[in-house]
Design goal:
Helices cover 81% and strands 0% of the residues. It contains 11 helices and no strands. Helix 2 runs parallel beside helix 10. Belongs to the 4-toluene sulfonate uptake permease (TSUP) (TC 2.A.102) family.
Amino acid sequence: MQKLIILGLIGFAAQLVDGSLGMAYGVTSSSLLLMFGIAPAVASASVHMAEVVTTAASGISHLRFGNVDKTIVRSLIIPGSVGAFAGACFLSSLPGDLVKPYVSAFLFLLGFYILGRFLFGNPSLPGKSKITRRFLIPLGLIAGFADSTGGGGWGPLTTPILLSRKGIETRKVIGSVDTSECAIAISATAGFFVSLGWTNINWPWVATLMIGGVVAAPIAAWLVKIIPSHVLGVMVGGLIILTNVKTLLDSFKVISPFWHGLLYIVLSLIWAVGIAMAVYKHKNKLKKKMTVPLPK
């Protein structure tokens, strides 16, 4: 019962993050599941099964509000699904103890990527830009594969890359990525079924993750109105870094245990400074808006 409560809180926290940022449900929930000792393949399978429900609800909402570019969705779905299925089969064929540190390393690097993207990244500039299928197909394939092997990565990879292109509305990038993610979650789940079988899936865990996510969805929608997205992005990046550094230290044993505590302190300080910088930048941006003279 205690583990189910923890899983419910994990699903709640992951959806809270994802609903506020449009990404990081898989990365956040997989990081926390790995921290609690769940095998990588089972953790990733559980996350993707829960995502089938959460991404479907998200996609329907984005379609209703007109936040979807159907051309982007159609171009991402097929290669993303292929990559997700292949990644699920690849991950399931490896021993859990062997692959766990490498999955954590992948998530650890993604954490720094997310932190840097939201702290130092610039919004897309206005202008015309045509996104071709030649660009979207390899992006979907790589992001889908990374999403299955790492338990997350579809949003953190596709959203920033698409936002770096000129002339694309931010809301349509987020809406299109979230809508296409439903197909990626279904394909990854199918891959895990083929590789792991039905009997190796803990259905109460999946149901608990889903329930936690459903409860968090309306709260996340409210939070996105009061907390700037780049501040939340820095918070997500730091969370992923800290949750995965323990697995890396325990697995590779490159650093003496004496330095573990110091490393946690340093990373925590970097995270705190990043949040402070993001808040400071947001306040300065608000001040500039208030000081701009109104047209006569």
